[in-house]
């Protein structure tokens, strides 16, 4: 029964469709103290449901603040999850052998979803709750296009119009995500656009603006706030997004139990923190209950080191300073990270819930340079046969580091990682690595100081 004991090697640990978790897990219910409240930028008072109602349906606002330990997954959402869930958990025998490590490495693979990443786990839930509330259209921003793709797919499932503002620079450079969004029925605009006051103001100042995630958020929010039948959807950072992603960790718990293993180390990459939280929070529940004791490690890019180098302070979620203030590890909303290939990890802040858990000392964090990450990504592709998205190569680099440490010490640790997406549309990034033209720029203390100087005074 145990992997390796019967002589029969288990590589892919699957679950039956009937074993898809029926509930999402809310870690806030089990923490020793609640996370600090989100504040209104004008009054500096905690925001209430009425403040958020123009942007989100009430069901999601309730999930944002709930203290219940579990939230039932609606049947309609489970029905769509069945297209790719349960996702497989793999034992990385070939990577282990290549590294010569006694560690047992497992990866939970979310690249099997329609968008090729973990993002549909929340996109489908958000589209469902909006449709159930009578909303007809969702707006959002997208950088590289992962989130826009996931939301366009989800909207197609529930007959919603999906309108995506994609940062101009990536709209021009990465046409395939745009075409995927359109194939799923989404409408896509380069941002800045002429369709919003925010976009027009930027274009008036600079007709050739390459755009930014901050500008794209402003445009998507503006349209949602102006129309009764339109709301806005966010792909990371917020509590309800992390909640929806816990289906990943709940499945992984069942899958590891099937092979009789318990993780000693869990690693995941963090942009806004949703795939990491999705895998790690159900294991954190087990850790807090004393049933296991894994080290839980977030891995961020050295070019955007929010947890390891940022400050824990109230800051805006967007560059323009329009959103409520969230207490989080942040480099400052003015911080512009180097254009590293892991576009999904270039966010100035960290999810408030992960930031709080980090402050409580329940997780740790490390930062990795992109060359080290791509080296791990290529090694992984050549052994395991999956080309990882640039983002999870960060988790893989930390995985390789831990496995090599085990080789030194002879410890047969169990390492679990989130392989949150494939890199089939990121081959240009691999091209740059393979051609030897990838660079790592060190962030100077001055860069960090300058960005933090723009933090709002609370
Ligand atoms: C969006 C994205 C990320 C970063 O977002 P998180 O909320 O930190 O998970 C990481 N990996 C992939 C594949 C993504 O699409």
Automatic annotation (TrEMBL):
<dbReference type="GO" id="GO:0004834">
    <property type="term" value="F:tryptophan synthase activity"/>
</dbReference>
<dbReference type="InterPro" id="IPR006654">
    <property type="entry name" value="Trp_synth_beta"/>
</dbReference>
<keyword id="KW-0057">Aromatic amino acid biosynthesis</keyword>
<feature type="domain" description="Tryptophan synthase beta chain-like PALP">
    <location>
        <begin position="83"/>
        <end position="421"/>
    </location>
</feature>
<dbReference type="GO" id="GO:0005737">
    <property type="term" value="C:cytoplasm"/>
</dbReference>
<keyword id="KW-0028">Amino-acid biosynthesis</keyword>
<dbReference type="InterPro" id="IPR023026">
    <property type="entry name" value="Trp_synth_beta/beta-like"/>
</dbReference>
<comment type="similarity">
    <text>Belongs to the TrpB family.</text>
</comment>
<keyword id="KW-0456">Lyase</keyword>
<comment type="subunit">
    <text>Tetramer of two alpha and two beta chains.</text>
</comment>
<dbReference type="GO" id="GO:0052684">
    <property type="term" value="F:L-serine hydro-lyase (adding indole, L-tryptophan-forming) activity"/>
</dbReference>
<dbReference type="Pfam" id="PF00291">
    <property type="entry name" value="PALP"/>
</dbReference>
<dbReference type="InterPro" id="IPR006653">
    <property type="entry name" value="Trp_synth_b_CS"/>
</dbReference>
<protein>
    <recommendedName>
        <fullName>Tryptophan synthase beta chain</fullName>
        <ecNumber>4.2.1.20</ecNumber>
    </recommendedName>
</protein>
<keyword id="KW-0822">Tryptophan biosynthesis</keyword>
<keyword id="KW-0663">Pyridoxal phosphate</keyword>
<comment type="pathway">
    <text>Amino-acid biosynthesis; L-tryptophan biosynthesis; L-tryptophan from chorismate: step 5/5.</text>
</comment>
<feature type="modified residue" description="N6-(pyridoxal phosphate)lysine">
    <location>
        <position position="119"/>
    </location>
</feature>
<dbReference type="InterPro" id="IPR006316">
    <property type="entry name" value="Trp_synth_b-like"/>
</dbReference>
<dbReference type="InterPro" id="IPR036052">
    <property type="entry name" value="TrpB-like_PALP_sf"/>
</dbReference>
<dbReference type="InterPro" id="IPR001926">
    <property type="entry name" value="TrpB-like_PALP"/>
</dbReference>
<comment type="function">
    <text>The beta subunit is responsible for the synthesis of L-tryptophan from indole and L-serine.</text>
</comment>
<dbReference type="GO" id="GO:0030170">
    <property type="term" value="F:pyridoxal phosphate binding"/>
</dbReference>
């Amino acid at each position: 029964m145990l992997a390796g004991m019967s002589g029969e090697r288990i590589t892919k640990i699957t679950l039956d469709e009937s074993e898809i978790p029926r509930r999402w897990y809310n870690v806030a219910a089990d923490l020793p103290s609640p996370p600090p409240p989100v504040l209104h930028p004008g009054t500096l008072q905690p925001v209430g449901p009425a403040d958020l109602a123009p942007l989100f349906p009430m069901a999601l606002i309730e999930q944002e603040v709930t203290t219940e330990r579990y939230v039932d997954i609606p049947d309609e959402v489970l029905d769509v999850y069945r297209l790719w869930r349960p996702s497989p958990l793999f034992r990385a025998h070939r990577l282990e052998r290549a590294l010569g490590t006694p560690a047992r490495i497992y990866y939970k693979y979310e690249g099997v979803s329609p968008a090729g990443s973990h993002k549909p786990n929340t996109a489908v839930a958000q589209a469902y709750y909006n449709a159930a509330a009578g909303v007809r259209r969702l707006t959002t921003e997208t950088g590289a296009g992962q989130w826009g793709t996931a939301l366009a797919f989800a909207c197609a499932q529930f007959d919603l119009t999906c309108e995506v503002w994609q940062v101009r620079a990536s709209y021009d450079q990465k046409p395939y995500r745009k075409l995927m969004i359109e194939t799923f029925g989404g409408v896509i605009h380069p941002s800045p656009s002429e369709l919003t006051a925010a976009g027009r103001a930027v274009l008036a100042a600079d007709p050739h603006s390459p755009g930014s995630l901050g500008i794209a958020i402003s445009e998507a929010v503006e349209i949602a706030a102006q129309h009764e039948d339109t709301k806005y959807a966010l792909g990371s950072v917020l509590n309800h997004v992390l909640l929806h992603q816990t289906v990943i960790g709940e499945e992984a718990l069942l899958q590891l139990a099937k092979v009789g293993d318990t993780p000693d180390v869990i690693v995941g990459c963090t942009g806004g923190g949703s795939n990491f939280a999705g895998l790690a929070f159900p294991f954190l529940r087990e850790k807090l209950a004393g049933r296991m004791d894994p080290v839980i490690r977030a891995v961020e890019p050295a070019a955007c080191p929010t947890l390891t180098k940022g400050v824990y302070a109230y800051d805006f979620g967007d560059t323009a300073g329009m959103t409520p203030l969230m207490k989080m590890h942040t480099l400052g909303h003015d911080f512009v990270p180097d254009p590293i290939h892991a576009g999904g990890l270039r966010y100035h802040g960290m999810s408030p819930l992960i930031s709080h858990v980090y402050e409580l000392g329940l997780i740790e964090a490390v930062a990795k340079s992109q060359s080290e990450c791509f080296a791990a990504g290529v090694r992984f592709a050549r052994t395991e046969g999956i080309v990882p998205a640039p983002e999870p190569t960060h988790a893989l680099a930390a995985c390789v580091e831990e496995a090599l440490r085990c080789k030194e010490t002879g410890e047969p640790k169990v390492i679990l990682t989130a392989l949150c997406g494939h890199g089939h549309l990121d081959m240009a990034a691999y091209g740059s690595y393979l051609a030897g033209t990838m660079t790592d720029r060190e962030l100077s203390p001055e860069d960090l100081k300058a960005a933090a100087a723009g933090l709002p005074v609370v």
